[in-house]
Design goal:
With 300 residues, the protein is an alpha/beta fold. The protein contains twelve helices and seven strands. Strands 1-2-3-4-5-6-7 form a seven-stranded parallel β-sheet. Helix 1 packs parallel to helix 2 and helix 6 (142-155) runs parallel beside helix 7 (170-183). The longest helix is centred in the first third of the chain and has 20 residues, at 85-104.
Length: 300
């Protein structure tokens, strides 16, 4: 459930100048997790989520919630086709219910997490189910497109439906973008899937995920977010000017300095991410060397 540290964190990002704040991946069902994941399984989550929506809106940022199931690593099954149809459809309904709760809480919309080997990504990339949700690409993406259409219908036309997705197959990456657009999605947030992007052109100056986003940008009419090792405002501005994406997502830079956006736009130098091999922020934000240095400088 939401606690004060969540509220403080997202207030800092919104106050720090971010135009769009996507709340961390929240599980639509209570399942075994190796981390302290926010859960949207019941209406009991709504009051806390409303506090997050309100604090983000206080600074005029748009607020989305990333909804997900972690996937097979938290389930008794080893493959998508082993999930019985009853559970498979129950998981589908849980995504819709979670989106409705986010809407009631006052968020502008949701973002499906269908990247990084999460459940929806596993279905799209690996499902060998014998029903209408497995086998061909059209079947594997069906769950996804049905969810988009149903949430659009249940939550209203003005709700933002964003999708974070990736696929090591550029062909299927682009076909997924086409499917999202046809189903009524609003925003394409391109990251990685269950494998790395290969065949990135030699000399491409940015992360492979940015290259993948550029392919989607050239194909789709929807806005495209790119992500991946964007640490400076100059890098972000160059990506936008070159037309590789329409928006940039800054993760670790914002962890190191929640005011990354405001400082960058003002021509100031944000407290930089030091690119630690293992990000200490996720263990305890106070352990992040960049954040610790900033705190020490403020005390001085």
């Amino acid at each position: 459930m939401v606690h004060q540290s969540h509220i403080d964190r997202y207030e800092a990002y919104a106050k720090g100048g971010a135009g769009l704040v996507i709340v961390e991946a929240c599980s639509v069902l209570r399942m075994p997790e190796n981390r302290d994941t926010l859960c949207l399984e019941s209406d009991g989550c709504i009051p806390g989520m409303k506090l997050l929506a309100d604090v983000i809106h206080r600074y005029s940022a748009v607020a989305l919630v990333q909804i997900m199931l972690t996937g097979l690593s938290t389930m008794k099954e080893n493959r998508i086709d082993e999930i019985c149809r009853t559970d498979f459809l129950r998981y589908k309904d849980a995504f819709v219910s979670a989106a409705l709760r986010c809407r009631v809480a006052g968020f502008n919309g949701i973002e499906f997490h269908a990247a990084h080997g999460m459940y929806l990504d596993e279905v799209i990339e690996t499902s060998e189910r014998m029903d209408e949700y497995g086998g061909s690409f059209e079947n594997r993406v069906r769950l996804f497109t049905e969810l988009i259409a149903e949430i659009r219908e249940r939550c209203g036309k003005d709700v933002i439906v964003a999708v974070r997705f990736g696929n090591p197959s550029y062909e299927e990456l682009l076909k997924t973008a086409d499917a999202v657009q046809a189903a009524g999605g609003d925003l394409l947030d391109v990251s990685s899937g269950m494998g790395r992007y290969l065949d990135v052109p030699s000399g491409f100056p940015y992360d492979g995920k940015v290259y993948a986003a550029s392919l989607v940008k050239a194909r789709a009419s929807l806005p495209v977010i790119c992500v991946g090792n964007i640490f400076t405002g100059d890098e972000g501005e160059a990506i936008l000017k070159e037309g590789l994406a329409g928006m940039i997502a800054v993760g670790r830079g914002s962890l190191a300095d929640p005011a990354w956006a405001r400082k960058t736009l003002a021509g100031e130098s944000p407290n930089p991410c030091l690119r630690c091999k293992n990000c200490m922020w996720y263990m305890d934000g106070a352990l992040c060397p960049a954040r610790r240095r900033e705190n020490e400088e403020q005390r001085l």
